[in-house]
């Protein structure tokens, strides 16, 4: 094997960027075909290709880091920058929806009755399930920190248990939110209130599911001894993402559920 | 361990020594009675059972490290052999087939609708 005279990672040629790009093409064209020709084949094909790409790409990253040792300190630093920049881009994504909410709610139009919540909208009581959801996510923030400290201290059993508990809390949140969606007295079609509510909380819920999946992968890796007490960046990235999801919920709760009710 | 720390802290605070709390044996004149042996075999502490009590499987990372560090020129996405090759070919098949299907669908979608 040729030996490199630097600490950086020159990746092997990989087909996954191409398959991922084609997946994006199929998903978007598939969406248009679904809208106009009522066929979901292309879109489903695109989604399957996306899932295959994600699985194999990230599997390869684990192989390169854990099994081949390519994640040296400078490489890890780059991965940290990458995750932080990605989360920052997600912050801006949510900022847009909060902008839309405040735009409509700070100056409610005559069509809404000149008030917020608009006339005819029965809002959800912020001190019922939404408050429970807040407690659930805050608790999961505690358990994920507990998991981190367990990993750093080499406490295998505690790390597995606290990480599993974090994921369980994430699923509990998703379940409660799904129930709320089902029972809500208003829909996404109920004016700008419905739109802002369901789009903002809906994208948040999607991020909770993504975060839970990320943590679940970390749990599997922890069980299989991938993490050491000094090197466990995959877990740290998942924990950062999870804290981000928690913070977005707090903003949602304060703005839409509480102030907006 | 936490209990040992708390005990040490208590000794520091009270200025006592390690075995001060143990009374120096029975009062003279009292006959001692041997307690009946409860345990036939000695019990083993978890800390003496070896470096790691197995929890959810053994560590196979060193073996996998050997597999993935073989100098055979195979790229990382195919390094595990047959299963990698099958998954790669399936994915590539869907990619090429899907791209062609997409182009055909878009071509058809672009045809004008004759009423």
TrEMBL record, chain A:
Domain of life per record: Eukaryota
Recorded coiled-coil stretches: none
One Pfam family this sequence matches: COX3
Topology relative to the membrane: Multi-pass membrane protein
Catalytic activity from the UniProt record: 4 Fe(II)-[cytochrome c] + O2 + 8 H(+)(in) = 4 Fe(III)-[cytochrome c] + 2 H2O + 4 H(+)(out)
Database matches in Gene3D superfamilies: 1.10.287.70, Cytochrome c oxidase, subunit III, four-helix bundle
Subcellular location: Mitochondrion inner membrane
TM annotation in the entry: 16-35, 41-58, 79-102, 159-177, 197-220, 240-260
InterPro entries: Cyt_c/ubiquinol_Oxase_su3, Cyt_c_oxase_su3_dom, Cyt_c_oxidase-like_su3, Cyt_c_oxidase_su3-like_sf, Cyt_c_oxidase_su3_a-hlx
Chief localisation class: mitochondrion
GO biological process: mitochondrial electron transport, cytochrome c to oxygen
Keyword field: Membrane, Mitochondrion, Mitochondrion inner membrane, Translocase, Transmembrane, Transmembrane helix
One cellular component term from this protein's GO annotations in UniProt: mitochondrial inner membrane
Residue ranges of every copy of the Heme-copper oxidase subunit III family profile domain listed in the record: 4-261
Family annotation (PROSITE patterns): COX3
PANTHER family: CYTOCHROME C OXIDASE SUBUNIT 3, CYTOCHROME C OXIDASE SUBUNIT III
Family: Belongs to the cytochrome c oxidase subunit 3 family.
Known role: Component of the cytochrome c oxidase, the last enzyme in the mitochondrial electron transport chain which drives oxidative phosphorylation. The respiratory chain contains 3 multisubunit complexes succinate dehydrogenase (complex II, CII), ubiquinol-cytochrome c oxidoreductase (cytochrome b-c1 complex, complex III, CIII) and cytochrome c oxidase (complex IV, CIV), that cooperate to transfer electrons derived from NADH and succinate to molecular oxygen, creating an electrochemical gradient over the inner membrane that drives transmembrane transport and the ATP synthase.
Subunit text: Component of the cytochrome c oxidase (complex IV, CIV), a multisubunit enzyme composed of 14 subunits. The complex is composed of a catalytic core of 3 subunits MT-CO1, MT-CO2 and MT-CO3, encoded in the mitochondrial DNA, and 11 supernumerary subunits COX4I, COX5A, COX5B, COX6A, COX6B, COX6C, COX7A, COX7B, COX7C, COX8 and NDUFA4, which are encoded in the nuclear genome.
The protein's name in its UniProt record: Cytochrome c oxidase subunit 3
Source organism of the structure: Dicentrarchus labrax (European seabass)
Recorded name of the encoding gene: COX3
Automatic annotation (TrEMBL), chain B:
Keywords (A to Z) from UniProt: Membrane, Mitochondrion, Mitochondrion inner membrane, Transit peptide, Transmembrane, Transmembrane helix
Gene3D superfamilies assigned to the protein according to its UniProt record, in alphabetical order: Cytochrome c oxidase, subunit VIIa
Domain of life where this protein originates: Eukaryota
GO annotations of cellular component type: mitochondrial inner membrane; respiratory chain complex IV
GO biological process, one term: regulation of oxidative phosphorylation
One Pfam family cited in the UniProt record for this chain: COX7a
Membrane-crossing residue ranges in chain numbering: 86-110
Keyword Transmembrane helix appears in the UniProt entry: yes
Principal location class: mitochondrion
Pathway in which the depicted protein is active: Energy metabolism; oxidative phosphorylation
Compartment(s) where it occurs, according to its Swiss-Prot or TrEMBL record: Mitochondrion inner membrane
Cross-referenced PANTHER family: CYTOCHROME C OXIDASE POLYPEPTIDE 7A (PTHR10510), CYTOCHROME C OXIDASE SUBUNIT 7A-RELATED PROTEIN, MITOCHONDRIAL (PTHR10510:SF2)
The family this protein is said to belong to: Belongs to the cytochrome c oxidase VIIa family.
Protein name: COX7R oxidase
Lineage of origin: Eukaryota, Metazoa, Chordata, Craniata, Vertebrata
């Amino acid at each position: 094997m040729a030996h490199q005279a630097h600490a950086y990672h020159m990746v092997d040629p990989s087909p996954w960027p191409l398959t991922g790009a084609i997946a994006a093409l199929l998903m978007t064209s598939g969406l248009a075909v679904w809208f106009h020709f009522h066929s979901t084949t292309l879109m489903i094909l695109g989604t399957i290709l996306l899932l295959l790409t994600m699985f194999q790409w990230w599997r390869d990253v684990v192989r390169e880091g854990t099994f081949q040792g390519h994640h040296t300190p400078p490489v890890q630093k780059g991965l940290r920058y990458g995750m932080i920049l990605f989360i920052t881009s997600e912050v801006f994504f949510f900022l847009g929806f909060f902008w839309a909410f405040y735009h409509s709610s700070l100056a409610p139009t005559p069509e809404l009755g000149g008030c917020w919540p608009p006339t005819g909208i029965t809002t959800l009581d912020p001190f019922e399930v939404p408050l429970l959801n807040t407690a659930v996510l805050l608790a999961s923030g505690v358990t994920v920190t507990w998991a981190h400290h367990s990993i750093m201290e080499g406490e295998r059993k505690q790390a597995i248990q606290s990480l599993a508990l974090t994921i369980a809390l994430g699923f509990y949140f998703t379940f409660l939110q799904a129930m709320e969606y089902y029972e809500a007295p208003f829909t996404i079609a109920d004016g700008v209130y419905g739109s802002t509510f369901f789009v903002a909380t809906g994208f948040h819920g999607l991020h909770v599911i993504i975060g839970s999946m990320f943590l679940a992968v970390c749990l599997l890796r922890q069980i299989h001894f991938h993490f050491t007490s000094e090197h466990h960046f995959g877990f740290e990235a998942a924990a950062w993402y999870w804290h981000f999801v928690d913070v977005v919920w707090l903003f949602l709760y304060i703005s839409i559920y509480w102030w907006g009710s | 361990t936490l209990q040992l720390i708390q005990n040490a802290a208590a000794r520091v605070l009270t200025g006592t020594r390690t075995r001060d709390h143990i009374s120096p044996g029975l009062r003279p004149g009292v006959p001692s009675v041997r307690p009946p042996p409860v345990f036939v075999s000695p019990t083993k502490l978890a800390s003496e059972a070896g470096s790691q009590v197995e929890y959810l499987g053994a560590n196979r990372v060193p073996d996998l490290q050997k597999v993935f560090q073989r100098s055979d020129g195979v790229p990382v996405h195919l390094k595990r052999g047959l299963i990698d090759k099958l998954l790669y070919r399936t994915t590539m098949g869907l990619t090429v087939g899907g791209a062609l299907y997409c182009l055909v669908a878009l071509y058809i979608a672009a045809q004008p609708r004759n009423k």
